[in-house]
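Quick board copy: two proteins, each given as sequence then tokens.
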Amino acid sequence: MLAEMGKTIGIERGKHYFVAGAAALTIASLGSWTMPLVTGTLIDILGFSEIDAGFLISIEMLSMAIGSLIAAASLAHIAIRHLAVIGVLLAVVGHAASGEASTHETMLLYRALAGFGEGILSSVGIAILARLIDPDRAYALAFIITGLIASMMLAFVPSAIREFDARGLFISLAVISIILVPALYFVPKKPDESTGLAKISNKRVNSVDNLTGILFILGLLFISIMEFSMWANIERLGRNVGIADDSIGYILSLGTLLGLLGSVLAAFLSTKFGRITPIVIAIMFQVIFSYLCIFPTSPEVYKYSQAGWSLCLYFAYPYLLGMAASLDSLGRWAAAGNGMLIVGQIIAPTLSAYIIQVSSYSGLFTLIAVLTPISLMIFFHANRLHEKALVDG
């Protein structure tokens, strides 16, 4: 299977680099994928308000963004393997220590530590996968692996929370990170390998102009706010419709597994129909599923809509990251785009918590409905400028 992945992404040692990149991204995304469970744990077990819980999650994401940007700037100077080791150590220590946090201040410190490590690993994974011959397919395959692990977590972690309270959640994150550590052995050893994993196609320009790049990553910011405003509250939406606590984890797990079909489809199609068309289709359908999740008429509507929302997410993201990788032959816009996605994760929990507190969940859908056309218009314009640059180049 790994050998086939190596052939798919186009380089002899692709299977090794792919495994390392996918593992780094998986560890980096554990906090994001468990955001609904973290939100519920902070509010229902530790007694934080919705605003306080959203603030803690935003601090973790802020630390993640800082770690990601620092790591991206260090890739040409520090061996990427060293960055991976630093990142996983900080993430594991931060998760484990969070399980012992007894105050708001200590929890904030430990989540920030975990976020910083996750940010470093995020840049490591993005830097590796962005330089493979077919980054869209590499991202899709990496999302499949990440989603499988996330779905298993969402299934069993609620039981750990029930048995061990907050400690069960955060220790689970630390243990899963440790299990994935051996895959980081395949991270490139030399600094120059981090920016030279594959021969760049002659069809690619060196870099788009700053306007196009900034415009595109601004669109990623809006998409990220939209996605994570929904994801941060999706567990509580299930509770609002009367789904029992024990069932929500399994529903999210099953929805994530079904959502993986989106990445399977993206890996199969690759860029056969370009990138902008799949992005538009996925995001438009996701708005519909978001509405049905926020205003479900029954638990069954919520279950199926949540699965559809996950499917659209997994289908769109490989194309978004693949477009970012295509903007620059050295992966600089891909790294910047990754950082902007994290910035969106910083803003989303606090913003959505405030909006829900002020105008209930109807305000959450209004946010999604406003950001969707803005982001799509940005992607259309950035894609047009990129295609024009390719023709002129």
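And the next:
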Amino acid sequence: MNKEVKIFYLSFLLSCLFIFLRLEIIYGSDIRAPFTDDFYYYLTTSRNFIELNRITFDQVSLTNGFQPLWFFIITFLNFFISNDIWLNSVIINLIFLLSFLTYLNFQFFFKKNNYNNEDSNFISISICFLSLFFSKNGMEISLAIYLFSQSLKYFNKNLFIFCIFGILTFLARIEFAIFLFCNFKL
């Protein structure tokens, strides 16, 4: 293992630790939804779905304003984990794991496409940290980037598996359909 990879591993672990501590998951004033942005909406809609069997945020009107796969994952976890601290901890650790697996997938993809170690490492690390940065608010972007990176592994090998990961990417973050269609143009 070269020096850059070791530094990346250390930096990634420290970043995850600092993000976890900054979110105040285990000690904050709002442990029910410590993430920013739309996560409170997802969590509330998920809880309402479990309790009311309806996809609703305000318990009155139905909603369709969510990314389906991420909503399913949040709801699945919410169904089995009733403790808010554990639920939020599992979700942020899932985001950390997906960001790290994204790094590995892009490393594989770029090396397979004849990038040298330095370039593939630099690009993969950059994508990993961008995934981590944009996902620190508990949102679905880490899942979408991970699934997109998985689809790239099968781009020229197995069209069926590529399409399965493409559909899952689309369900994780609907805007990713643009990237998938661009791949067909290549």
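Board note added afterward: Residues 84-112 form the longest helix (29 residues).
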